[in-house]
Specification:
Layout lengths: L2 H8 L5 H25 L5 H5 L3 H9 L7 E2 L2 H14 L6 H23 L11 H23 L9 H11 L5 H20 L5 H16 L25 H5 L1 H30 L5 H17 L6 E2 L1 H9 L6 H17 L8 H15 L2 H10 L1 H17 L1 H21 L3 E5 L8 E2 L12 E6 L8 H11 L6 E5 L8 H16 L3 E5 L3 H9 L3 H5 L7 H7 L32 H6 L3 H18 L10 E2 L2 E2 L2 H20 L5 H25 L1 H21 L1 H21 L1 H14 L7
């Protein structure tokens, strides 16, 4: 879908003004950035402007993305610059002017190959940590290359240690005025990016730099300026094929690496924008757009062209929604080349370098690194290894290291999928993981094991070991909840047959349940039909338990602190006792209950009838009696804290506590009428919470005890019979305690 059909489909004429403004800003911002990256690629600065003319135009016409921007960018420039260094070719030399466009043509050729083999789908196999680490590594590498130019020195080449050596060796030539201009530019741009992100500060800094040169003649004080460039339209160039004959493997491999990096980064970033605006991007057609823009870049002597995340972000912030923006950017750059190049000789190199470095700082994935550290240390390690691979061994090796680690993590995840032993919550009709739900209990004489991944040679040991370690003297049956097992291999199949036979010899039944019927077909084909014929395959967990005489209501193993022995609880119809907040938030449930309590205090102070609802409701829905009880206790604690913080007066607290108590009394009375056993379980649950609170948070427990005493006195006044029942329950649970 080209530019004009895209406009027709989206009806984007109303957005024309925003697209034109965004295109002008993108072109002006691209001037210093593109010139800086051209130098990194070993080209004169004018070629950065050439690369922002035809390539952007061709991409804008052919792309299926409505608002993404391309141009001369960091990674391809750095990879080409590193290759020139490896070949011993001096930056800006005639050899460089021949080899660099050749790399753009070769990159375009690879994109045609990618189009033919539909390689766009490969990008989904490149993980975010790998790409994030690679991008960050390249950004840091180029920053280190450019640091000496901030204080009047020359750019370095190579990897981490040579770049550090280059910085140290040039420190004796430190030029204070250049450093002030360079580092000051970085500081101001970063500050303005945070405070006034929509203002094109890079363009403003260029104007300031030129004005300082005109007024103060900075070059007379030793500040380096950009060399004077000749304006006009770019000429078509013929690439040098000499090195393709002498170093074919290096050039082909390097250009393939550049094409792969451009494809991965640009497709991923394009996909993010498509998802944001509900657009449809054809990844395979994008290969043709990438081929065209790189062929156009090579035709005018430029380095390979890449998608630009930073410039796309600028275009997005100005409301660009179609590739009219790219047409405008290309047209603006044409005007600059025709009429604006005399202005460029007034630009101080430290200010231009500061602009480029600020753009590079923007591509370093600080936020991704932080998120990975918090969420997944293994993915964080992949991110860091990709980053360090680029810094220490170069861009190509960095990608290879990251990809190997990424696939290694996929293998590790497959060998260790999520597993859980499951049981019942008293009064609830489903099966729940024991570790996730504090109220879930094992069913007597049964082990129910949930395995959430394909079963094959690399993880069958863990599967078998988990089950064998869980078996106890009274175990009569092992039931596998296999709803997460979609595929099985022959090694795992043979081990299942062996496990079934070994458990049978011990007098323990073995069942596989809850899976899709296709798993039965796989077992039959792989030679485990004996499991089907022996009745070891059942449709549900309940049917498997019935086979060994374990019927509803199930007897549960009670292991709470303060309760000894085993209690038999009958299922209580449709009563819902699952703590849904615990199920949603896991170990962070207390934090969210506190948030709910804070919200409830606000509701309570603003709406007197808040607690008069039939069911207390939160943003996560209605609270069941057990959750409501816990929530009300947290609410009372929060009221006490607000009193201590001076946010509410003692009179307000007493009034609100009375409302809370009235709600509790009403709820307990209704629960007593509906099902006395549920009230008994509620009281037991409350006792368990208090035991935990006394051990872990004694000060809060003391406050809770004081509240309970006041509550119990009020309960005796309102409903003496119910108060006596509750007191009797407490004595049964704690027979050694003296009656108050």
């Amino acid at each position: 879908m080209g530019l004009f059909s895209m406009l027709k489909q989206k009806g984007n004429t109303l957005n024309l003004k925003n697209d034109i403004i965004a295109g002008i800003i993108v072109a002006l911002v691209s001037i210093p950035i593109s010139m800086g990256y051209a130098q990194i690629a070993g080209l004169p600065v004018i070629y950065g402007l050439y690369g922002s003319l035809l390539p952007i135009l061709f991409y804008g016409i052919l792309t299926t993305s409505p608002q993404f921007v391309v141009g001369v960018d960091a990674m391809p420039a750095a990879m080409v610059g590193a290759m020139l260094s490896e070949l011993g070719i001096a930056a800006g030399s005639e050899e460089a002017l021949g080899v660099v466009p050749l790399m753009a043509w070769l990159t375009a050729g690879w994109f045609l190959v990618f189009y033919l083999i539909r390689a766009g789908r490969i990008v989904k196999y490149i993980s975010t940590p790998v790409m994030g680490g690679f991008i960050s590594g390249v950004g840091i590498t180029i920053i280190m290359m450019q640091i000496p130019k901030l204080f009047g020195g020359n750019a370095g080449t190579g990897e981490l240690f040579p770049l550090l050596g280059n910085i140290l060796t040039q420190l004796p030539e430190f030029h204070p005025l250049s450093a002030g201009l360079g580092f000051g530019t970085v500081f101001l741009l970063l500050l303005c990016k945070k405070l006034i992100p929509k203002v094109p500060m890079t363009v403003i800094m260029m104007g300031i730099g030129a004005a300082l040169q005109v007024i103060f003649h900075l070059d007379s004080y030793g500040v380096k300026l950009l060399p004077e460039v000749t304006g006009g339209l770019p000429r078509l160039v013929t690439p040098s094929f000499e090195y393709l004959r002498t170093e074919p493997a290096l050039l082909l491999l390097e250009s393939l690496s550049i094409a792969a990096v451009i494809m991965a980064q640009t497709l991923l970033a394009t996909g993010n924008y498509a998802s944001k605006y509900n657009d449809i991007v054809d990844n395979n057609k994008e290969m043709l757009a990438y081929a065209a823009m790189n062929a156009a870049g090579g035709a005018v002597g430029c380095c390979p062209i890449n998608g630009s995340v930073s410039r796309s972000g600028i275009a997005d912030s100005f409301g660009a929604r179609s590739q009219i923006m790219s047409l405008t950017a290309s047209g603006t750059m044409l005007l600059v080349l025709l009429f604006g190049t005399p202005f460029l000789k007034y630009l101080p190199v430290p200010i231009l370098t500061g602009i480029v470095m600020t753009a590079l700082i923007g591509i370093i994935e600080f936020d991704l690194q932080r998120r990975l550290w918090q969420a997944s240390r293994s993915e964080w390690m992949i991110f860091m290894m990709s980053l360090l691979g680029v810094l220490l061994f170069g861009t190509v090796n960095g990608v290879m290291i990251g990809c190997v680690l990424s696939f290694a993590e996929v293998a590790i995840r497959a060998t260790a999928p999520p597993t859980a032993f499951v049981g019942r919550i008293p009064g609830q009709g489903n099966f729940y993981p024991l570790g996730r739900n504090s109220r879930a209990r094992e069913i007597e004489h049964a082990i129910i094991y949930r395995f959430s991944g394909n079963l094959f040679f690399a993880n069958i040991d863990r599967f078998q070991q988990d089950i064998m370690n869980a078996i106890q003297e009274d175990t009569r049956v092992v039931v596998v909840d296999a709803r997460g097992i979609g595929n099985i291999d022959i090694t795992a199949t043979d081990r299942l047959v062996s496990l079934h036979r070994n458990l049978k010899n011990k007098g323990i039944a073995f069942y596989i349940t809850e899976h899709d019927g296709s798993l039965n077909d796989q077992l039959r084909i792989l030679g485990a039909e004996c499991l089907l014929e022996a009745g070891a395959i059942r449709r549900t967990i309940t049917l498997a338990l019935q086979d060994v005489g374990i019927e509803k209501p199930y007897r549960l193993k009670m292991q709470e602190e303060g309760i000894s022995g085993r209690k038999e609880f009958k299922e209580a119809g449709n009563e819902q006792t699952l703590a849904e907040l615990e199920w949603i938030f896991g170990s962070r449930v207390e934090e969210y209950v506190e948030k709910l309590a804070e919200e409830a205090v606000k509701e309570l102070t603003e709406k007197p009838d808040y607690l008069n609802q039939r069911h207390l409701s939160t943003r996560w829905g209605h609270l069941n009696p057990f959750d409501e009880n816990e929530f009300l206790e947290e609410l009372e604690v929060r009221l006490e804290e607000m009193l201590l913080e001076g946010k509410l007066s003692r009179e307000q607290i007493r009034e609100l506590e009375q409302r809370v108590e009235d709600r509790r009394l009403e709820a307990e009375k209704k629960l007593q009428e509906i099902d006395p056993r549920a009230l008994h379980r509620l009281r037991l649950h409350r006792e368990q919470l208090h035991l935990h609170l006394r051990e872990k948070h004694p000060e809060e427990f003391a406050r809770m005890q004081e509240l309970q005493k006041r509550r119990y006195e009020r309960l005796k006044q309102h409903n003496p019979a119910l108060a006596e029942k509750i007191s009797e329950m407490h004595r049964k649970v704690h027979p050694d305690e003296k009656k108050e």
